[in-house]
Specification:
The chain is an alpha+beta fold. Helices cover 42% and strands 14% of the residues. It folds into 2 domains: 65 residues, no CATH class; 35 residues, no CATH class. It has 5 helices and 4 strands; from the N terminus they run αααααββββ. Strands 1-2 form a two-stranded antiparallel sheet. The longest helix has 14 residues. The radius of gyration is 17 Å and the shape is elongated. Bound molecules: zinc ion. The site of zinc ion has 7 residues, from loops.
């Protein structure tokens, strides 16, 4: 299935992203290519470290790029609480405000404590 892209909106946001700061040559065009041609799964859980490694880019710059892209509405960001025993996603949050120290993994039936500085 081909994704429907709102061309004008995408162009406007990519143009803003290009001027957000000074980027390495072609960095924004590599992200645009990813947005246009990657499959849904690759777009749904874009990993900045994998994106950087696969394209021989600097990790810090890619993280910065994706944070700027998120602030422009090109991506959304979730925070996940993972169970350290089974790696299941125990909770998915839209902001860090909702993160709390104590949580429960129903798969493992254990109460856990999140190291909030990690
Ligand atoms: Zn678990």
């Amino acid at each position: 299935m081909t994704a429907i892209v709102k061309e004008r909106l995408l162009d406007e946001r990519l143009a803003k992203l290009e001027t957000a700061r000074s980027w390495s040559p072609r960095l924004v065009s590599k992200l645009e290519s990813h947005i246009r041609f990657a499959d849904d799964e690759a777009l749904f859980r874009i990993n900045p470290f994998n994106f950087a490694r696969e394209r021989s880019l600097g990790e810090n710059e890619v993280i910065d790029l994706l944070l700027h892209a998120t602030s422009l509405g090109l991506f959304g960001m979730d925070w996940l609480l993972l169970c350290p025993k089974c790696s299941c996603v125990v909770e998915s949050l839209r902001s860090l405000e909702g993160v709390h120290r104590h949580y429960h993994c129903s798969a493992c039936q254990v109460d856990l404590e999140a190291p909030l500085d990690d």
